[in-house]
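User: I'm writing a short report section on ligand binding and want a predicted complex to refer to. Could you take this sequence and nicotinamide-adenine-dinucleotide and write out the structure as tokens? A short remark afterwards would be nice.
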Amino acid sequence: MYGQLSQADIDKDLEDPTRIQFWYFRATQVRTKLKSSDQRGFIPAMNFGTYSKPAQYPMAGSLQDNFPSTPGKVKVEKSNYFSRVANRWQSYITAKFSFSVIAVVFLLVFAAFSVSLLGAKTIQQVTPWKDPIWRARVKHSCLIKRDNGFLVLVTGASGFVGSHVSLALKKRGDGVLGIDNFNNYYEPSLKRARQALLEKQGIFVVEADINNAALLQKLFSLIPFTHVMHLAAQAGVRYAMQNPSSYVHSNIAGLVSILEACKTANPQPAVVWASSSSVYGLNTKVPFSEIDRTDRPASLYAATKKAGEMIAHTYNHIYGLSITGLRFFTVYGPFGRPDMAYFSFTTDILEGRDINIYQGPNHVDLARDFTYIDDIVKGCVASIDTAKKSTGSGGKKKGPAQLRIFNLGNTTPVNVPELVNILEKLLKVKAQRNIISMPRNGDVPFTHANITLAQKELGYNPTTDLHTGLKKFVHWYRNYYSQPSAEK
Ligand SMILES: NC(=O)c1ccc[n+]([C@@H]2O[C@H](COP(=O)([O-])OP(=O)(O)OC[C@H]3O[C@@H](n4cnc5c(N)ncnc54)[C@H](O)[C@@H]3O)[C@@H](O)[C@H]2O)c1
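Assistant: Sure. The structure tokens for the complex follow:
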């Protein structure tokens, strides 16, 4: 049949490129059929290859050249050197191109996967409340297990004072939720260890910054907190010279963020928060009383705490928030802060390092009104129990609200050399003492609390002397750091 085509038919078909492809396709079919009977020579016989390829149909030629019916068996016409090189390059480039495409696709898939993982993590961190498990943990942590129990949000819950207060509230049946950003001002592993203790008692610590307004708002919409125990802060007097902005971030912006959330909440909670004995600054009149002047801070830390007291006054005045400020005096005890002298002295004495003991002007020993953690916890809990309700709702004040400030100290200051004497006895190791003049780094020469007001209003009555308290601390310290997981 193919052999019967007239020249005119073929010329007509050559006018139309699709027809040329058709004919080439038909020829390929025939060649495939005939190859077994060794009749491949038929194809040129049907005159297909006798037509010179018209320049306007280059496709026809290329199709003819590159479509072997049986790869590997067809007789390939010998091409010239340049076309062989060109062919080789074409295959090489095609292979390279395919490889590049595969590599790009692989990279894109990998990138998309990583981004989605990262995105999921970010969403977890930014909007944890979208996770039903997270919400369930929050609610479970806030279960009240006593009549007329409170719902307390404790900020800085993985901190020294925060962890002890959280445990005390939980123990008596209040619903407690913690929040802490686990910053690395001191060993975060210690904060994690406290968190693990709280978790064991059913207290969930939300890992977040108190400046996260969206998160706070969400927490207040989930839980009608009756009280906020605000203990999150950048503590430490000397560190303020290294990292001043951390004090502004946590102690000023953070406090405002908490008070904003409390003011908007409906019902508004009562707020109890930690100020500091450092607000007494360079005062020389002892013991320090709440009515003494507090406008001469000796450190940025003290200045941020003083600023906090004034900010608290404003929120009480404008929004009707019930606010109690507590001026703690050098708190110490188990699970304490490694940056504080009693703690770092213990480490250094046990490891045989020298300890620096500062002296004030005229070689006067520094003295502190060391206050044991259990006494501080009692003062915090009594403040919660005696706090009156806030009077505002949804950001509007409906009447005057309670505003209080209390010293929580021990009333029996001990000088630093005496503190070291006690530690030497408890540790049974002699300290290597360096007596040096106190640098101007924010420390004050002495603190001494007048606690009359707290005694009267809170029933606060500290009962632990320094020797007894340090004995408990040393006992904890030895246990804690003998565990392989503990870091110093
Ligand atoms: N320990 C003392 O002797 C003493 C004395 C006076 C006042 N205070 C005050 O008592 C409070 C508790 O002190 P502490 O000794 O337990 O200190 P701490 O450092 O052990 O606890 C504070 C906790 O707050 C967290 N935190 C800090 N900034 C935060 C932020 N922006 N968002 C979320 N969490 C944040 C920290 O991670 C830490 O766990 C602080 O306000 C401190 O200024 C303590």
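A remark for your report: Residues 156, 158-162, 180-183, 191, 209-211, 231-235, 250, 254, 274, 276, 328, 330-331, 337 surround nicotinamide-adenine-dinucleotide (CB under 6 Å). The chain has 16 helices and 13 strands.
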